[in-house]
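Quick one: structure tokens for this chain, please?
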Amino acid sequence: MNTLMKDIAQATGFSINTVSRALRDDRKISKRTRELIRAKADAMGYIHNAIAANMRCLQSKVIGVISKDSSNPFFAEVVRGIEERAREHGYNMLLVNTEEDAQRERDYVRLFVSRHVDGLLVVPGYQCQENLQLYKSLSIPFCFVGRRVQGIEGHSLLHQDYESQLEVSSYLIANGHRRMLYLAGPENLSNSADRLNGHLKALENAGIALDPSLIIHTRGHIEEGYASVNLALNRGIRFSVITCFNDLLAMGALKSLSENGCQVPKDVEVFGFDNLYISQFMQPSLSTVDVPKFALGVSAVDELLRHIERRDLEYKDLNLETRLIYRGSTLNRGL
């Protein structure tokens, strides 16, 4: 026989309302009372019926999280921030990965809507008309984490992709570099477009003509950083620095340079983006742009919950601050 809240109320002498609030960890109930009631509930084998409770309050207390690349540690840190903040607010998280596939992104959005989640946090693709129309049709709150979707304004939490890459490339130019190999990310991601545009703007500001051979597009994986630098070296492309869409590409670049007898930073300097935890342990340690990954996840939950609680609230894009970190893969540690 299932233990009910009325049984706990009878056993403790408290009202059913007080028991219910104590089991929800309502801080308006004293700590001593909450502990007493929860201890009695445990002893009596009470199991909270979350489905029934959520039906009563018309909320599932679940957030759907659609991430992108399960092999990229960047997203693991963002998801950790999402999960910890969600738990603080009494929410659970359901996580899926699309592996950068637009169809899977649509499928997961529809799946979460059918499961009646309270809101969505999505790491989206950039340009896809079918996905754009789907997001425009949604009736539940949603936010984009770390990326934009062309055609939808106000839903994104970003991290100064354009501004940061402009600062990196301008810094390298100021330190005397003119031939900079840039390893770009996937063309269907807003991050990739924004960072590439920041790099191109730095060249324009310095009056440096663009050499198309110095721009190599990748999917952002470590092995592509390795292969791209091998390709550039084999083709005899001259460069004095490699600046990368992300740290994974930069790590692959470091391996290629080492195997080809290039000393870093003496012969070629390398600059990454994201400040993955492992980047400080590379040999040499990697200069990079520090993106506040955990804080991005926390801020995404905060912003989503604001819209879950107030459906009429206007959406606004947020842009978290980044900073440049100078380590052993560059010669000069700032200007």
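The longest helix spans residues 293-309.
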